[in-house]
Structure to design on (1062 residues):
């Protein structure tokens, strides 16, 4: 009977880019998801929890980082040869769910979903490979009222979790306007690619100056506007640019003239929504635009403008005015699948970045209209629009603002003075719990009493209860107010110690009542002095 | 510009063994997790959400189906060559978390966790590859009070989600007792394998009749007691057995005499806990037991008995008597990693199985003490005990009992009579929502009014609101009580129709108040007649 050889010990580590969430963090996220879910639900949206695992083909190539289609997901091969993958967002699964269950679902189908998504990306500081999203989408409605509603709901959701009015703005734009601009610039896009061949033949002669550029590349570039500014976008659209690290990023390669028009578009936000729309209308009246209009291509821009106007009007009529909703042509949202309105919620308060510089907190949610996602499955275009809230970023924002508790109140700890009387301690804890008080008996080795109090301290316990043999005989227990005790230990005068002792005896049968009293007084102290 | 060739449409299907959860099902699970989480929290446990993805080495080979170690998980290789996998339960990640963060965590560390786990098993009817667990564990306490507490908490959790007292029982047992029995039978186990070689040498001469049998195989077999009964276990422990499908299952190969002793052990439950313990004590007094005791091996059984007694006493003292807690030697829990107390919550009410036969609902939760899991990482034994509730099975049980709503109340639907007046309808819905009423404007194509009412019906809407041009001019709206309407349509007399009309006009500025009234009256009707 030879000893079996032991394999080396496994490392106790989360995989790179993954992390664990403890106590207060889990509670904070739960509370946030619940608050957002309540808003979504009140707006008539229905909960959906789709499988975390999808077939790779159902997920498709809609990864945000379109430079690496098919990469970016965690995928594995089944014994059957099928490939499965973890969902990378909640929108691709929604398209699959709607296509699969469309005969049973109401139309429009309004659903919300919340849960983790996974991205197989290079992890970095604050950049995790599993994170939470919290989405709401309306599938089957082409109405701009659906988009307007999502924007209103987004405002309500932000306020429900504690972002105050004035601390955020929802910026809206419309892809059709951008497409209109791009067409006016003679930049290739899907519409021109699908034109009849007699047109594209004539194109070669009539439009020898056309630039055939991937509109996705233009989109991705102008999505960096917030980061690199107008100058940066100009460089990236044309010949390229050195980034902060000194690496050279290739340019998209369109002409300087066209690039500057794109930047003009992005900077066309006026002092109010009316001025912005007027600026955009003017920009689209550019030379080639009329010519293209005769071929039925131009009106996409006009349609986009009208949609923007309609959304802004609907929102304004409901009281979501320019303090919360702003038309901003610099919002493009990088994802290739948006087809109409796009929107983004930005937190406007300033925080200090790692280098101590002030900057705005930035985007915490975004979305838009995507009319083609369901079509992938069914061949039929199904209009859809929706928003995704980046839960972890929003939590980080609340933490920055000091609106999240860093720790949670711990349980009342019944210490164990006499290990043979466990039944007595369990009886106490039972009474406390029955009164709704979070409480536990110390279950470590009770030998060292100091360890028990250290444990209570580490748990953030408000109260410790002590009953040794003498107390038992006398029918009393000792109650220790640990919060008061810590405060007194810090800075109390002798008089204060005497006036408000942090430890006292109470009759055993008053245990529950007295603990409730202490918890209530701690609560009111905390409200009086939240520091 | 050639057309890009389109790839075939992807299938809109969840992968085999996965499923989606809609509306009422999501809400029911949320409510259940919340209720259980509140109980765990009140007991002093702290929330933990560990990463869904672990390294394969951290997960280890503790899969429930020990016949296929390393199989049963969804795993994939990283570019770095590391293998990652989806967690298959919440216990293995807890061991990793505790080992990783042990210097920062309080000890004992009491945590609860809830979330999906994944098993790469052959899917079957009602058998899914993603399902929820809801666990609570105490790591770092060797005290039987920790086990007793988990059992009490399990009772409280079941009652908190709506399983009434009398409809469940928590059955407890102790692996050490079983090990004691096995040792008494001269069946090989870990303890004998690790005996000093001078003993094992002598063993060959002294115990030529010893059977060296994998105790895991014995465990797995007797875990099937509920399914195959005493006769079945006897066959499976010895020469084998034909299962229902006619396939032959190999036997473990121990002698008939020893097998019958194992079955005796499993059937040694008496009329109360005292009798059960006395039965067990007698069984362990078997011939070889004393001899083994002289080598320090026997006392494991005695220790197990003492632990059982202690847990039962502690629970009894807290009011968790034999109506809820029963010592039952037939509970073994298949998992190899349990080292002491094991427990299982069983629902005792009868349901009809697929063939219309009555049977008990069975197990919905289980757990036990596992003192070796953390040791895998740190080399140090850390005592731990905990329970896992099978959330989906518990939901199924509540559904069987008719205690779960099959559908959710839908939103109030504002119909769209005049698509140019969307702003008016949005104003109405805003007022309703501000009053806390779940409401929405119909966002599909409004052309066909019948479709709007069909939609409201499909959503289970309680009320529809109608405002055409005439109503607008007259300053009124039409309110349709859809629940009452459906009821009247079914079986009302003409008088009832007249006495309580399901549709009526109200002044526009009374919209909110009147909708609230209708919702309240629907609520009280429902309570009066829950059918």
């Amino acid at each position: 009977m030879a000893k079996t050889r032991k394999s080396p010990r496994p490392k106790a580590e989360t995989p790179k880019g993954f992390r664990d969430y403890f106590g207060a963090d889990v509670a904070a996220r739960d509370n946030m998801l619940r608050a957002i879910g309540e808003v979504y639900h009140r707006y008539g949206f229905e909960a959906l929890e789709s499988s975390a695992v999808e077939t790779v083909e159902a997920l498709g190539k809609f990864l945000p980082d379109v430079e690496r289609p098919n990469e970016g997901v965690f995928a594995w091969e089944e014994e059957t040869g099928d490939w499965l993958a973890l969902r990378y967002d909640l929108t691709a699964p929604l398209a699959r769910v709607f296509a699969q269950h469309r005969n049973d679902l109401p139309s429009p189908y309004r659903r919300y979903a919340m849960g983790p998504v996974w991205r197989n990306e290079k992890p970095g500081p604050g950049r995790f490979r599993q994170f939470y999203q919290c989405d709401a989408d309306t599938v089957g409605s082409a109405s701009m009222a659906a988009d307007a509603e999502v924007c209103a709901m987004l405002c309500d959701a932000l306020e429900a979790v504690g972002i105050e009015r004035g601390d955020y703005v929802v910026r809206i734009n419309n892809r059709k306007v951008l497409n209109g601009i791009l067409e006016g610039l003679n930049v290739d896009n899907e519409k021109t690619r699908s034109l009849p061949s007699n047109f594209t033949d004539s194109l070669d002669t009539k439009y020898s100056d056309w630039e055939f550029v991937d509109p996705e590349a233009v989109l991705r570039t102008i999505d960096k506007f917030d980061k690199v500014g107008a100058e940066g976008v100009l460089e990236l659209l044309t010949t390229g640019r050195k980034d902060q690290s000194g690496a050279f990023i290739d340019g998209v390669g369109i002409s300087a003239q066209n690039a500057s028009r794109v930047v003009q578009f992005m900077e066309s936000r006026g002092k109010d929504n009316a001025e912005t729309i007027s600026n955009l209308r003017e920009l689209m009246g550019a030379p080639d635009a009329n010519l293209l209009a005769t071929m039925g291509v131009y009106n996409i821009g006009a349609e986009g403008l009208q949609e923007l106007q309609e959304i802004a009007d609907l929102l304004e009529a409901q009281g979501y005015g320019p303090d919360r909703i702003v038309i901003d042509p610099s919002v493009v949202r990088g994802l290739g699948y948006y087809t109409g309105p796009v929107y983004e919620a930005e937190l406007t308060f300033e925080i200090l970045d790692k280098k101590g510089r002030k900057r705005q907190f930035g985007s915490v949610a975004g979305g838009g209209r995507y009319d083609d996602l369901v079509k992938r499955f069914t061949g039929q275009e199904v209009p859809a629009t929706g928003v995704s809230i980046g839960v972890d970023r929003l939590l980080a924002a609340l933490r920055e603002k000091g609106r999240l508790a860093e720790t949670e109140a711990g349980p009342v700890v019944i210490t164990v003075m006499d290990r043979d009387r466990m039944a007595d301690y369990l009886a106490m804890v039972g009474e406390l719990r029955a009164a709704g008080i979070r409480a536990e008996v110390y279950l470590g080795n009770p030998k060292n009493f100091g360890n028990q109090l250290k444990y209570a301290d580490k748990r953030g316990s408000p109260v410790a209860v002590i009953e040794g043999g003498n107390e038992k005989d006398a029918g009393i227990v000792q109650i220790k107010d640990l919060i008061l005790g810590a405060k007194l230990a810090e800075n109390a005068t002798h008089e204060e110690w005497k006036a408000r002792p942090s430890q006292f005896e109470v009759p055993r049968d008053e245990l529950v009542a007295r603990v409730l009293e202490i918890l209530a007084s701690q609560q009111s102290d905390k409200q009086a002095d939240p520091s």
About this structure: The radius of gyration of chain B is 30 Å. Chain B touches chain A through 101 residues (CB under 8 Å). The longest helix of chain B spans residues 23-42. The mean pLDDT of chain B is 86.
